[in-house]
Design brief:
This protein is α+β, with helices and mostly antiparallel strands. It has 2 domains: about 80 residues, no CATH class; about 200 residues, no CATH class. The protein is about 40% helix and about 15% strand. The chain has 13 helices and 4 strands. A 4-stranded antiparallel β-sheet has the order 1-2-3-4. A hairpin with a 4-residue loop joins strand 2 and strand 3. The longest helix has 29 residues.
Length: about 375
């Protein structure tokens, strides 16, 4: 729209040049590589992949570099590129129970069968700046240390660990999570618009792509009394899960690789109803990479959005996180960013119209006030 302004095309071209210079920064400082971003900013890469709906660490790292660290811009770039890619096949449902674990914890069971695996996390660190990280000396590995390949494979080779659902499901204390035989094919939000009302599978798609900050705020609101739930962290897993594709010519599924995931199962009390026995209910979150905060926030909001299913309140004023249309319509950061940032574009005609109207109203108001003063005198 700025092209309409005199000299707009030249100004935009110059803006692109300035952007490239600003993104590069001081040429005297070594350029940040894609490999460095992928290996050392892995949590940012995980967020961009999840909310960009594309699992590719290299492309996510490239988007972060191109966006100069603006993760929402990077997510937009990755989504835009994703639309150019053909869909070759659809994978089989992921079996997260087969996850090769890097981390697995439960806040509900101390002695979790299969054990708890703390893994790499900031949970047990003090939030103090580590000034040793400012050391510019190359961090070469000392002789005799493990190879770089060892650090690239943090996942356990084989840990068979029953999930929280299996433990509580044996006693019938946790709702089943198996799909029904007559369940329709999942809706695809990457190709079709969000239409209300939606089923849970579609809600989960929306939340998986949703902005982490927004979901975190919504999840936080449920803990502060603006919802009807207060769950326990039944289980949080982070690890590598095999991806399988069914090959028609072979008549069976074959493994084509692995992806890194974080899965969260939250469990919440439900007192029961006339048709449902008292039991624990589920909130579920899943995200690419190591993304516990996103998965937990997603699980909190997922359970809140099941309020109608369990006869709980959905009043927007008192329980905003329980309101499906409010949450799902505002969770997408690419859409939200577009609506907010469009205010930067030229609105000269609209503003001039408002300005003329305000001047006329001001003149009429002053005339009416002057008349009232004369009558009072």
């Amino acid at each position: 729209m700025y092209v309409a302004v005199k000299g707009g095309e030249r100004a935009i071209a110059k803006s692109h040049e300035l952007l490239a210079r600003a993104r590069r920064g001081d040429p005297g400082v070594p350029e940040l590589s894609i490999a460095q971003i992928k290996e050392q900013l892995r949590l940012a890469v995980a967020r961009v992949m999840s909310e960009g709906s594309l699992y590719d660490e290299d492309l996510a790292a490239l988007a972060i570099k191109q966006a100069a660290g603006d993760l929402i811009e990077a997510i937009f770039l990755l989504r835009a590129y994703r639309t150019t890619l053909p869909r070759l096949s659809e994978s089989q449902p992921l079996a997260t129970g087969r996850m090769r674990l890097a981390r697995r914890i439960s806040a509900a069971f101390k002695d979790l069968p299969g054990g708890q695996v703390l893994g790499p996390t900031y949970d047990y660190t003090q939030r103090l700046l580590d000034f040793s990280l400012m050391d510019e000396v190359s961090e070469t590995m000392p002789a005799g240390a493990a190879s770089a390949e060892a650090f690239a494979e943090p996942f356990a080779e084989s840990i068979v660990a029953p999930g929280i659902g299996e433990l509580l499901g044996r006693e019938g204390l946790l709702e089943a999570a198996l799909p029904k035989a007559d369940d329709p094919a999942p809706y695809d939000l990457t190709r079709d618009p969000l239409l209300f009302p939606v089923d849970r599978a579609t809600r989960l798609q929306n939340l998986a792509r949703g902005d982490e900050g927004f979901l975190l705020a919504m999840g936080y609101s449920t803990q502060r009394g603006y919802s009807t739930t207060h769950p326990f962290a039944g289980e949080i897993r982070h690890g590598a899960v095999p991806v399988e594709v069914f090959v028609d010519e072979l008549g069976f599924a074959v493994e084509v690789g692995e992806i890194e995931l974080t899965e969260c199962q939250l469990i919440t009390d439900f007192e029961g109803s006339a048709t449902q026995a008292p039991q624990f209910t589920r909130g579920y979150g899943l995200a690419f990479g190591h993304a516990e905060r996103k998965a937990m926030a997603m699980a909190l909001v997922d359970r809140a959005l099941r309020a109608r299913e369990f006869g709980e309140q959905i009043n927007l004023r008192d329980h905003p996180a329980n309101n499906e249309e409010f949450v799902l319509s505002h969770s997408d950061n690419v859409e939200a960013s577009g609506f907010v940032q469009h205010l930067k574009l030229p609105h000269y005609v609209d503003f001039q119209s408002n300005l003329d109207l305000l001047r006329r109203l001001r003149t009429e108001w002053e005339a009416a006030r002057a008349a009232a003063n004369r009558e009072a005198a």
